[in-house]
Design goal:
With 315 residues, the protein is α/β, with parallel strands linked by helices. Helices cover 36% and strands 9% of the residues. Helix 6 crosses helix 11 (211-219). The longest helix has 23 residues, at 116-138. Residues 296-315 are annotated as: Disordered.
């Protein structure tokens, strides 16, 4: 009897040894997603801007290229009829101000909403934003031809060279605050050595699409808004605009106006003045203000303060 017990125990030990040795993973607990799938920060992969190379962001799988926007090709623009005839157009003036490293142009956009509804709305919203950008680019073609010429080549080149950077990761950015976005964007600016004031619109600010922005654009394809964040904002600095807090909204119909005007003015100057407790909204003109839910101000808005708005830190 004792020999039988010893025999079976020996077989059991041999079987255990065989399992552990030949199938080691069957005896281990699989790591959790947070342990095995670390999120790579694009800021860890950034490159310094090279004035002779096209701009590249690490979230893009491939490098961008356009044969007409190389340094050699752009040097020949002066010989082209469209470049001379459209000299007074804003679109034509936009092109020669930029080195190759500032093409493709576009906004850096942070997505901070990942609800099931947002998955359906996101492609619609991005399409509407691009459509309004193109409308802004092409608006001067409607002006009298004798003033601005009728060649559409400048607008064509600008539209072909537009490419936004979209920072999107639900495990990291779902519900992120304005300050979290600002901090990440500020690190990026330092790594590409653009932390000081830059004349390039690409790095003047970043955009934030949260749930309110998403729904506002889905509801209104012109006056819907996105958040705008100044990565260089310093609360200890004194600005000409005393109400400036490094954040505003922009109606998507004014995205092109905002981008172009960054060539001349920083965000702190372009941001509309507003009473405390309201959110400034850039609309390409004098601007307006809204409450947190996107409701436009009443005529006597300066006498009313939306309850609970200040300090929420969300767009």
């Amino acid at each position: 009897m004792e020999l039988s017990i010893i025999y079976y125990l020996s077989l059991l030990l041999l079987f255990g040894y065989f399992v552990v040795y030949h199938f080691p993973h069957t005896n281990s607990i699989p790591p959790s997603p947070s342990e095995s799938a670390s999120i790579d920060d694009p800021n860890d992969q950034v490159e310094e801007l090279d004035p002779d190379k096209f701009y590249h962001h690490p979230v893009w799988p491939q490098r961008w290229h356009h044969p007409m926007l190389t340094k050699e090709a752009s040097a020949k623009w002066w010989q082209e009829p469209w470049f001379k005839n459209a000299a007074d157009r804003r679109s034509r003036q936009f092109l020669p101000r930029r080195l190759p490293c500032y093409f493709p142009w576009g906004y850096i956009i942070y997505r901070t909403v990942y609800t099931p509804e947002s998955e359906e709305l996101w492609p619609i919203v991005m399409k509407r934003m691009a459509h309004q950008l193109n409308r802004g680019i092409e608006c001067e073609l409607d002006h009298p031809r004798e003033l601005h010429g009728d060649e559409s080549r400048p607008e064509q080149l600008i539209e072909e060279s537009h490419k936004d950077v979209v920072i999107s990761d639900p495990s990291r950015w779902d519900g992120a605050s304005i300050e979290q976005v600002r901090g990440h964007f500020a690190v990026y600016l330092r790594k590409i050595k653009q932390e000081d004031y830059s004349e390039e619109s690409h790095f003047a600010s970043c955009l934030v699409v949260d749930e309110r922005s998403l729904k506002s654009i889905a509801k209104d394809d012109r006056n819907g808004f996105v958040g705008v964040v100044d990565g260089r904002y310093n609360p200890e600095e004194r600005y000409d605009n005393p109400s400036y807090r490094g954040f505003m909204r922009v109606q998507i119909k004014a995205l092109w106006d905002l981008y172009v005007n960054y060539d001349w003015e920083p965000m702190s100057t372009l941001c509309p003045k507003h009473p405390d407790g309201w959110i400034p909204v850039y609309n390409g003109c004098y601007g307006t203000v809204q409450d947190e839910d996107g409701n436009d101000y009443p005529e006597n808005y300066a006498q009313h303060r939306p309850e609970g708005l200040a300090g929420r830190g969300r767009g």
